[in-house]
Amino acid sequence: MSMLSVLRKIVQEVSTAPDLDSVLDLIVRRIQQAMKTQVCSIFLFDPTRQRYVLRASQGLNQEAVGKVSLSPAEGIVGQVGQRAEPINLEDASRHPAFHYLKATGEERFHAFLGVPIIHHRSVLGVLVVQQIEHRRFDESEEAFMVTLSAQLAGIIAHAEATGSVNSEQQPQTQVKPQRDRHFTGVAAASGVAIGTVVVATLAAELETVPDKPAKDVQQELDAFRVALEAVRDDIRTVSNSLARRLRSDEQALFDVYLRMLDDQALAGEIEARIKAGNWAQGALREVVLAQVRQFNSMEDAYLRERASDIRDLGRRILGYLQESAGPQEVECSEESILIADELSPAMLGLVPEDKLVGLVSVSGSGTSHAAIMARSVGIPTVMGVVDLPFTRLEGRQVIVDGYSGRVYVNPSEQLLEAFREVMREERAVAAELEGLKDLPAETTDGYRMPLWVNTGLVADVTRSLQRGAEGIGLYRTEIPFMIRDFFPSEQEQLQSYRSQLEAFAPRPVTMRTLDIGGDKALPYFPIEEDNPFLGWRGIRVTLDHPEIFLVQVRAMLRASEGLNNLRIMLPMVTSVHEVEEAMRQIDRALQELQDEGYKVQRPMVGVMVEVPAAVYQVRRFARMVDFVSVGSNDLTQYILAVDRNNPRVAGLYAAYHPAVLRALQYIARETRKEGKPVSICGEMAADPGGALLLMAMGYEVLSMNANNLPRVKLAIRGVSLARAQSLLSRVLRMDDAEEIHQYLRQTLKQLGLGQLTRPRLPNQPS
Hints:
The radius of gyration is 30 Å and the shape is globular. A hairpin with a 2-residue loop joins β5 (about 110-120) and β6 (about 120-130). The longest helix is centred in the N-terminal third of the chain and has 28 residues, at about 140-165. The strands form three sheets. Strands 7-14-13-9-10-11-12-8 form an eight-stranded mixed beta sheet, with helices on both faces. An eight-stranded parallel β-barrel has the order 15-16-17-18-19-20-21-22, surrounded by nine helices. α1 (about 5-15) packs antiparallel against α2 (about 20-35) and α14 packs parallel to α16. The protein is about 45% helix and about 15% strand. The protein is of the alpha/beta class. InterPro entries: GAF, GAF-like_dom_sf, PEP-util_enz_mobile_dom, PEP-utilizing_PTS_enzyme, PEP_util_C, PEP_util_CS, Phosphohistidine_dom_sf, PTS_EI-like. Its EC number is 2.7.3.9. It comes from Marinobacterium sediminicola. Belongs to the PEP-utilizing enzyme family.
């Protein structure tokens, strides 16, 4: 068997192991067999003890496992961890760092190869193989170990995370549940929340079902048996109705399904889990996914295929269980934190608004739609917490830190008190900001900066006006499209747009034409692409579908009749041709409506600069349109080649990257050469430090989510334009995003605006 197939087999087997101990045990056994060595061991770094602990071994004394440990400065294992590179020795005992571990019985072994296990740049532990004879492991063996440890790092990190949360339910685990264990994601909406977890379960999606104690075991057993019988009936019905049309071997597939359902191993095991106290849906998830793991790890291709059959049956049974349970009665405490595998805007309705204090999504990022909505309603949110074992957290108390992007489980009383103090500080700042509502955003030397808002929901309007918004810089028209099952008619769109325009009149409202594609697909207009961000999206879609574009523009123009406060904005523009074509369509819609007798006027039309191609044509665009607006979120993503919805790289998404700042300054300068107004809508404008830089660059309007508007206003009122300009010239000489970020925070503190920077958080440098 080749090393590559051995590698695949180990990774596949290990990825389906149920807990950390099984993962580690499997790894050492399989590597020892594959490499034919006498010893394979794993030392994991324990951050609470600051030591490398022997957690699994094949070949050393089993009694030493869990007991023997080394400090990072001790032994060759410590050296591997400190250097974060392999050490390959012919005779370990002659190495100056050698540290004899008495209880292990390792004195007989000479050859030593230790490889670090690294996940997201931090060393989780060290993987070691040893042999009795004096010999150096060859290059292919070392390469195999390095490759394997890279593959296993993520699996170990996930199993370690899961184990530490769940260990109070697993007394056999050697490690006690860690207090104040945290999982890191992406900070999506600032603020701190402490509350009880509610897990959002997707319909018939096994992976998202949480563990819950069964209130009535008999009732759960009955519900499971009824669901099982219902699925049996369904399969028999399909089998009988297709009997004449199917060949006998295809017909036999239905018999396989029925045999699986009759198999006591499946049903009996699920019932045993229910009797042990898990509700029927949780018991089903545990057993079905365990069986899926078993089948997946088999060598026989036919048996591997059975994994998808088992999963399919599990989903069918789950569908009936969910149906019989009726609409999911979500049990909410007064302070509920909603956690989902993938948070969607629709899920926000699962918990009553007055009880929802925090949001966490395992996938997604700070600029996904759910995150944008969370910011608009002011709920602390963390996205992309990929290692969070969310199905095991139902009903548990957690802390959501929307400043640093951390979620804390098993919080200690000291940590809870520290975060309560942060929440008290937040309330004090909110009270201070309340008094600014009717005051202008004016610098100390008299420069007036208009602050507008980004909206998409009717609920945003009241909040925006209460915060003192002077206009709408971005109205996301796709939201009315997203909440329907088909394209809304001209009349439906008209009503939706009119309510926004009326609420803000006479203040300007900038409506972005439909921007679907990328991370925003409509359920009734799916766009399947390998790389949607470089695909069919924004203006590209609507110009290819003039029937959609014209109906939307007509609805906007009619909605503005008599109010005349509409501005139209074209998203994702990359070429002069697109601008010309869109202008033609808008003029056509205007002419049609005037011919039909509507008293509509030509609105201001602008383009959004969101892609690098638009940056370098911005002056030509400015000649053709009435205004230019920068979409800084997308522009940052495209300049840095970072998919902001991918939690693995979301940390590289840096609004203050020097390349992004230079592009923003260039856009403002080029647009002003044509005498056209330039505005910006994006998260950078919502950050007090970012707002000062943009004002200094010459942006004439800043548009942001309503909750951040008072903070930005306070920053502008606390500084002179001249001071902001000197801040900008200093920042443009810096070449590191984090350095810039820190400098902005420091400057705000010097200006007496320290309350606008992130509060000092427990366990973190200020």
